[in-house]
């Protein structure tokens, strides 16, 4: 079974592309959703987060206090690195367990915005990056995130890995630029990946 990573910057549409793969029967691991789950349910990680960020890291109901943690790490690279250093190893372990339950499939997908920053790429056999031009991304994000200004969105994007670097490091690129259709690209790549998995066996 191949482990395929799928990544892309904010607003490129990697989640939409992942959903197309899922419709083809490919298991998809959503790193963001699983990270939230792991932070709530992995007792070892919970204690590490409390040690690093204080008891306010969790609400009195035991839920992750995302607003509190975000306020600490957003403009503090050292604290963000500390948070990621705690969370990402637990997510990698969670992915390993999850992937082991899908060995009947030719390949699985791991969707992750921070594929390279978290070093998740080291677990992958191949990487797909989803590309969209900046102006297209901004239009999508302004429609989706109505609480954010264009300036705020650009500030977030500026802290992410550049599209050029993502594209140079990926084995496959899917263009979600409103010019090329996604489904034919996904279908073609799906067949390629199934063939690769057979060859690997």
From TrEMBL:
GO terms for molecular function: dephospho-CoA kinase activity. The keyword NAD does not apply. It is found in: Cytoplasm. Its EC number is 2.7.1.24. Pfam families: CoaE (PF01121). It comes from the Bacteria. Keywords: ATP-binding, Coenzyme A biosynthesis, Cytoplasm, Kinase, Nucleotide-binding, Transferase. It catalyses: 3'-dephospho-CoA + ATP = ADP + CoA + H(+). ATP binds at residues 11-16. InterPro entries: Depp_CoAkinase, P-loop_NTPase. Transmembrane segments: none annotated. Pathway: Cofactor biosynthesis; coenzyme A biosynthesis; CoA from (R)-pantothenate: step 5/5. SUPFAM superfamilies: P-loop containing nucleoside triphosphate hydrolases. Belongs to the CoaE family. Catalyzes the phosphorylation of the 3'-hydroxyl group of dephosphocoenzyme A to form coenzyme A. This is Dephospho-CoA kinase. It comes from Pontibacter toksunensis. The gene is coaE.
């Amino acid at each position: 079974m191949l482990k395929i990573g799928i990544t892309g910057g904010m607003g490129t549409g990697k989640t939409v592309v992942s959903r197309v793969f899922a419709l083809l029967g490919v298991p998809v691991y959503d790193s963001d959703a699983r990270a939230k789950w792991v932070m709530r349910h992995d007792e070892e990680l919970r204690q590490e987060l409390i040690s690093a960020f204080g008891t306010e890291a969790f609400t009195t109901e035991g839920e992750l206090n995302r607003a509190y943690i975000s306020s600490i790490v957003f403009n503090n690279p050292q604290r963000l690195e500390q948070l990621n250093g705690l969370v990402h190893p637990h997510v990698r372990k969670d992915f390993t367990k999850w992937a082991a339950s899908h060995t009947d499939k030719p390949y699985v997908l791991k969707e992750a915005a921070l594929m390279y920053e978290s070093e998740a790429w080291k677990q992958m056999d191949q990487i797909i990056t989803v590309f969209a031009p900046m102006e297209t991304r901004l239009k999508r994000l302004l429609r989706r995130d109505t609480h954010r200004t264009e300036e705020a969105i650009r500030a977030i994007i500026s802290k992410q890995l550049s599209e050029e670097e993502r594209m140079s490091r990926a084995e496959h690129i899917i263009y979600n630029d409103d010019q090329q259709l996604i489904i034919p690209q996904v279908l073609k790549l799906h067949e390629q990946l199934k063939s690769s998995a057979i060859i690997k066996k």
